UniProtKB/TrEMBL annotation:
An individual GO BP term: triterpenoid biosynthetic process
Protein name: Terpene cyclase/mutase family member
UniProt keyword terms in alphabetical order: Isomerase, Lipid biosynthesis, Lipid metabolism, Repeat, Steroid biosynthesis
MF annotations from Gene Ontology: lanosterol synthase activity
Organism of origin: Malassezia cuniculi
Lineage of the species this protein comes from: Eukaryota, Fungi, Dikarya, Basidiomycota, Ustilaginomycotina
Amino acid sequence: MPQTPPLGTTDLTRWRLRVSDGGRHVWHYLSEAEAREWPQTREDRYWLGLDMDVPDLPRAKTPLEAAENGMRFYKHLQSSDGHFAGEYGGPLFLLPGLVIGMYVTQTPIPEEWRIEIARYLWNRVNADGGWGLHIEGQSTVFGTALNYVVLRLVGVDPNDPLMVKARARLHQLGGATGAPSWGKFWLALLGVYDWEGVNPVPPELWLLPDWVPIHPWRWWVHTRMVYLPMGFLYGKRFAAPLDDLTRALRKELYVEPYESINWPKQRNNVAQVDVYAPHTRMLDAVFALVGRYEQYHVRWIREAGIRRAYELIVKEDENTGHQCLGPVNKMLNYVSRWIVDGPDSRAFALHREKLRDFCWMSGEGLMMTGTNGSQLWDTSFIMQALVDSGMAASPEWKSVCTAGLEWLDECQIRENPRFYRSAYRFSTRGAWPFSTREQGYTVSDCTAEGLKAVVMLQENGLDRRVNRRRLRDAVDLLLTMQNPGGGFASYETINGPELLEALNPAEVFGRIMIEYAYPECTTSVVTALQLFRRYDDYRAADIERTVKGAIKYILDAQRPDGSWFGSWAICFTYAAMFALESLSLAGYTYENNSRVRRACDFLVSKQQADGGWGESYRACELCEYVQADKSQVVNTAWAVIALLHAHYPKHEHIKRGVALIMQRQRDDGSWAQEQIEGIFNHNCAISYPNYKFSFTIWALGKAARELDWS
Ligand code: LAN
């Protein structure tokens, strides 16, 4: 790696995180004078990797003391409004959307962003000069070509050693013609890749009647919300006008001269290293057919498709405060609104403002995040850990809990979306979202974890800020989310046929076309319902039936070796924690149930020599347990919690896990960041840096309570 970041570095002591509006995150870069007026907090300093000036704590002798020390540190990271903010980076295909989207709409990129984006990519480059799909992945064409473009657009010179090496790596991989479809799409918008080289994304799909089994409304919400603006932009064949920089990029990105490239031939050309979900023959046949249609399409139908797509884009913007569901559709909608509404429109100004919500500043530079944060998710876990470990009862943590509850109260969504069925939205009344109320999407397990945290806090002596009716609203919503097999999916019920997966055009992600039921989501929901019914007999029979079905799903999802595959974090240890919690609530433990025994034996067989557990993200790709080189405190915490749920009788295994977590704790109570923790779509890792606090504290606190330490 070249010695210095390509555009230098900003003064880290001048960055501040401001939280507002129910958990909104915006990083500000202050002038020196402003910086004197607005001091940096410990929270800022933690996320910037600066010294926090916190005292060393007396060394913990028991797991409970270790949990308390952990919390003494973690409380410094609680934001002023009561939630726990955090860096939600990891994927490396998001900054390209941000920067290309800003470039083609001529949105000025602030100087401090340019410097810090370049520094982030410089920090995250692989030894071979390229970038992967995420920060721990091997170099791919997607990562390398697109981040190369980012660096050029923020002002890095093509002769910078970082660029020379990246270009060499890209050319070795075959050049940008081998980018997967989403990469081709962004390059085409920028005008450095020909639209003829992109498989069709017909906006006419949105004109199909709703009953058609492949109608986009039936797709997984992320996939449909990305393909919506893609259809619009493809229909328009929008490409930014060429300028010197993009002209230069046409030379730099390809092995062969740009003019000599046979574009239609590139549509299905995707570099081997990039492919996770190869095109099926059926998909290629459909593309061939739709490609024909493209040549002869009827003008007015195309226009109607574009209009329909635009109408739904506007509804999405309005429903989410111009935040959008996620970072990809955010930037595609952004470009779409610029084209139609123009740079001076109110809609575009609102959109521009919300770009900031996705930009997170870290010690390594500025990244674009996987959502506008993981506010609700992180806050509800630590609140539950505090209650479950008994710590919430101590006066020391009262204010942490009270502030947490106030924020959770704020965060619950009270009504259905403004554009509801007309925008194919699922109900939201009573839901908790993954990030903020403004983003406003129901997620099954986020609703469940939010509900659990609130009920636990309120039943432990805090004011009942969230009244019974609102808790019932959450329950009503959850009860509508169960699928026929008994399981719960992520944002909605499963609405489309699995056959649609054969038409997955995205190459780099697996199982993205429809919703699927997940053990994690299912467990969160059943545990929430079980907890709720301890205090309220509302819809008791429905809850009973739902829980039964869910437990059956969990049992059905178990593999013969006793494991469960985890879809949203790495991987089998994560899923085991959830699944065994479900089963223990149903009364199944190691003592009385062979399934639970098998699950525990599986987990214990993976315990590493030092007493910890450690899984590699490769497990999620390969769908098999893959040991990490080194044990990880987060995996260890999940395994410990799992075994505790199961009442696993050989306590020495659990205690060795606990000992490892204690041993890795630093003098100030914190734990160091280890491997990346999360995953999505089988193939892309994503950071949950707060897990090393919430789950370690939880595991320690729970173990302290449930095992004999005398
Ligand atoms: C998330 C993050 C949270 C996650 C859990 C709540 C953990 C899970 O149990 C349910 C699914 C959910 C909500 C989830 C879905 C997919 C997301 C939104 C992400 C992994 C964060 C980023 C990812 C999103 C799809 C990234 C943008 C990429 C595209 C392919 C559009």
